[in-house]
Each structure stands twice: as C-alpha cells, then as structure tokens.
C-alpha cells in the first residue's frame, strides 16, 4: 500500500507553477490548477528531463527539452515526441498541508 507524504504547505503552491520533489526513489511534480492540486511523475517519458523545470499552462506541463506536453490531471502524453504517459498520484490537503500518495 502506498503512503501519504507531506510535500508542501498549500500556500507555497503558486497557480500553474510546478514544484519538483523527490519522495524516496520517485520524482514528483506537484501543480496547483484552478480545480485542485495534482501530482504526476516528474520525469519525461521521452528523454528523462524533469517536467517541473518546464512550462505549465491550461492544465498541461511542457517538457523543457523537446516540448512534449502532458496532461497534469491524467498524465496522458499529449504531443510528440512523447508517446508514453506519466504516472499520476493522489493528492490531499489537510490543515493547510499538501500530501501526495506514492
């Protein structure tokens, strides 16, 4: 069973500004969107760059290397050169703290 990990204070997350964190061996990108806080695997499935260092807009996260885009809510690869989706992780907010289940 996956554990919940505190990753940030809710107030620290700026809209559409990815926060890259490491939970054990897993790189995670946490992003606040208008409809919630989402977490996806932070490593691009095309060339292994950190997605949290890319550009975020309209619920999409763009890889800084080759501009592959991923849906932050679903992890779905939206554009080439990426063809493989990234994992998503459940999030929750308790007492102003953001938690990710990995």
CATH architecture tag: 3-layer Sandwich
Q: Roughly how many Å is the radius of gyration?
A: 13 Å
Beta-strand percentage range: 35-45%
Into which percent range does the helicity of residues fall? under 10%
Structural class, by secondary structure, is mainly beta
Annotated CATH topology: Rieske Iron-sulfur Protein
Q: How many DSSP H or I helices? A: 0
CA-to-CA gap between the ends? 9 Å
Spatial order of the strands in the main sheet?
A: 2-3-4-8
Mean pLDDT, nearest integer?
96
Largest sheet: 4 strands, antiparallel
Q: Tell how many strands the DSSP assignment holds.
A: 10
How many structural domains can be distinguished in the coordinates?
1
What pattern of helices and strands is seen along the backbone?
A: EEEEEEEEEE
Instruction: Assign the CATH superfamily.
Output: Rieske [2Fe-2S] iron-sulphur domain
Q: Any low-confidence stretches, pLDDT <50, length ≥5?
A: none
Q: In one word, what is the shape?
A: globular
Care to describe what's here?
With about 100 residues, the protein is mostly beta strands. The chain has a single domain, classed as Rieske Iron-sulfur Protein, CATH 2.102.10. Helices cover about 0% and strands about 45% of the residues. The chain has no helices and 10 strands. Strand 3 (about 25-35) and strand 4 form a beta hairpin. It starts with a strand and ends with a strand.
